[in-house]
UniProtKB/TrEMBL annotation:
<dbReference type="InterPro" id="IPR036291">
    <property type="entry name" value="NAD(P)-bd_dom_sf"/>
</dbReference>
<dbReference type="GO" id="GO:0004029">
    <property type="term" value="F:aldehyde dehydrogenase (NAD+) activity"/>
</dbReference>
<protein>
    <submittedName>
        <fullName>NAD(P)-dependent oxidoreductase</fullName>
    </submittedName>
</protein>
<dbReference type="GO" id="GO:0005737">
    <property type="term" value="C:cytoplasm"/>
</dbReference>
<dbReference type="InterPro" id="IPR051783">
    <property type="entry name" value="NAD(P)-dependent_oxidoreduct"/>
</dbReference>
Length: 274
C-alpha cells in the first residue's frame, strides 16, 4: 500500500503547475485540474494526474470525487474581476459543495495582498480590509474556505519568475505615480517552497503574507528591470505618494526562509526566469 502523500491542486495555472511538478518530483501523488481537456492531459508531462474541471455555470468534471480524494488540497483560483468575472464566489461555492464530504489534513487557499489598502504604511495579516470590491470578494472567498475546511490562507504579493519578467510590466510607460513607493513582489520559487512549507507545518495561523523581504522603490526597481531586458525604462512623476510595504514576518517566524531575497540582484540572474 502506497504511503506517498497525495494532493489535489485546483487549478494548475502558472503557480499550480509549478507546485505540482515540484511535489511530484519529491514523491507526492499529485492530481491537478485544468479547464481545457488538452491542457489537463498535458499535466502528465510534469508528473501530475490531470482532470478537466469547469466551475461555471455549474461544476463539470469527469470524476470530481477522484480529483478531490487526497490528503491535502490547494485551491488556486484567482478572480479575474477586471475581465468581468463577476460570479467568482458562485464558482467557489460549486467547488466547496463538491469538497463538502472530504476530510483533508490541510487545505490551502491562495489569496492576494490586494486585500491591503495602499493607504497603509506597513501591511500585516491583521490589516486586511474590504477597501475595494476586489478586496471584498477575496476576503469573502478566504472566509468561505476557512469556515468550511479550516483552510490556511497564503496571500501572494505580485508574482515574478519563469515567464513573468518584471522588466515588461511597466516598460515604456510615462508619468507613472508613486516612484518612492515600496515594491511588493514574490518569486515563483518562494511561492512553491512556502506553500510546501505550510502544507506540512504542524502549527499554523489562519493567514500568511508572502512578499520578498526586499522592497526597493518602484522607480529604482522597474527602471532597472526594463533596462536589464534592453527595454525602454518607465518614467515617473516626482510625487511623494507613499505606498504599503507588505510584511512577511509571520511566515519567517514559522521557520520559512525566503529563497529570493534581493530583488535587484534577481534581475541580472538568468536562472530567475527559467
Amino acid at each position: 500500500m502506497s504511503t506517498a502523500k497525495s494532493i489535489s491542486i485546483i487549478s494548475c495555472g502558472w503557480f499550480g503547475r509549478a507546485l505540482g511538478a515540484h511535489l511530484s518530483q519529491k514523491g507526492w501523488q499529485v492530481k491537478g485540474a485544468k479547464r481545457e481537456l488538452e491542457a489537463a492531459q498535458e499535466l502528465a508531462e510534469q508528473g501530475i494526474e490531470g482532470y478537466q474541471l469547469s466551475l461555471e455555470p455549474k461544476l463539470i468534471c469527469s470524476n470530481i470525487d477522484e480529483l478531490l480524494d487526497s490528503d491535502y488540497c490547494v485551491v488556486n483560483l484567482p478572480p479575474r474581476l477586471r475581465a468581468g468575472d463577476s460570479d467568482y464566489l458562485e464558482k467557489l461555492d460549486n467547488l466547496l459543495a463538491a469538497m463538502a464530504n472530504k476530510s483533508y489534513q490541510r487545505v490551502v487557499y491562495i489569496s492576494s495582498t490586494g486585500v491591503y489598502s495602499d493607504s497603509l504604511e506597513v501591511a500585516t495579516e491583521a490589516d486586511a480590509s474590504a477597501h475595494s470590491e476586489s478586496a471584498r470578494v477575496m476576503l469573502e472567498a478566504e472566509q468561505c474556505f476557512q469556515q468550511a475546511h479550516n483552510a490556511v490562507v497564503i496571500r501572494f504579493a505580485g508574482l515574478i519568475g519563469a515567464g513573468r519578467q518584471p522588466g515588461r510590466f511597466l516598460a515604456g510607460r510615462k508619468d507613472m505615480a508613486k516612484p518612492l513607493a515600496p515594491v511588493n513582489l514574490v518569486h515563483l520559487r518562494d511561492c512553491v517552497a512556502a506553500c510546501e512549507h505550510i502544507l506540512t507545518l504542524e502549527q499554523v495561523q489562519p493567514a500568511y503574507n508572502l512578499a520578498a523581504p526586499d522592497h526597493p522603490t518602484r522607480r529604482a526597481f522597474y527602471q532597472a528591470a526594463a533596462e536589464s531586458m534592453g527595454l525602454e525604462a518607465p518614467q515617473f512623476i516626482d510625487d511623494q505618494q507613499a505606498g504599503k510595504r507588505v510584511e512577511s514576518s509571520a511566515i519567517v517566524q514559522s521557520g520559512y526562509r525566503f529563497q529570493v531575497t534581493d530583488l535587484m540582484a534577481c534581475l541580472s540572474d538568468p536562472n530567475s526566469w527559467k
